[in-house]
Write a structure and sequence with these properties.
40% of the residues lie in helices and 20% in strands. It is α/β, with parallel strands linked by helices.
């Protein structure tokens, strides 16, 4: 009898812009919760047939200083910023890995840097998950033009099925760009 490999579900995750470090965004949490409740169902006998793959893409600010106009810095300052960003990303992934461990769900997690839209699609080609699940902030057409959406890009360009989990109306912050 041949043992079937688990269904591999990639979940794109990012940090919250509202609550700040080290909380996951509303959309990431919703995507994770949906996968757990609707697909994996940890208490069911089929739960062992799934493996979650968490990908966090860090967007590096061009100068590394979060929208400051100008900065005088040493090479050590830049090294410290890169280290801080890496630690923040690891704490974010730790949140999801810990939740999976508590639920008895198999998982992997990793970080990449770059444009989230491009990196997610590139990682899909490399890892070849069976499904991608991402959250959506629910931006209107005007905001999408300026901010862009990872979920919309992935539905068009990812080499696997994509499920987009919309944010609930009652979870929308004052500024819908926030998450």
């Amino acid at each position: 009898m041949v043992e079937e490999s688990p269904t591999r579900i990639m979940v794109g995750v990012n940090e919250s812009t509202v609550k700040g470090y080290p909380y996951p965004s509303i959309s990431s949490r919703n995507a994770f919760d949906w996968v757990i409740k609707k697909i994996v169902r940890p208490r069911s006998p089929s739960a062992s047939h799934f493996k979650l793959l968490f990908l966090h893409v860090q967007v590096t600010d061009e100068d590394g200083f979060d929208d400051m106009d100008s900065v005088y810095a040493s090479p050590d300052d830049f090294r410290d910023i890169r280290h801080r960003d890496k630690v923040r990303g690891l704490h974010l992934l730790e949140y999801f890995v810990s939740r999976c461990h508590e639920l008895g769900v198999s998982c992997e997690a990793w970080m990449k840097q770059g444009d989230p839209k491009e990196v997610v699609c590139s990682e899909i080609k490399r890892v070849q998950p069976d499904l991608l699940v991402v959250g959506s902030r629910g931006l209107g057409p005007f905001q999408r033009v300026f901010v862009g959406t990872v979920s919309e890009f992935c539905t068009k360009h990812a080499d696997c099925p994509v499920v987009v989990i919309k944010r609930k109306v009652n979870e929308t912050p004052e500024d819908p760009v926030d998450d």
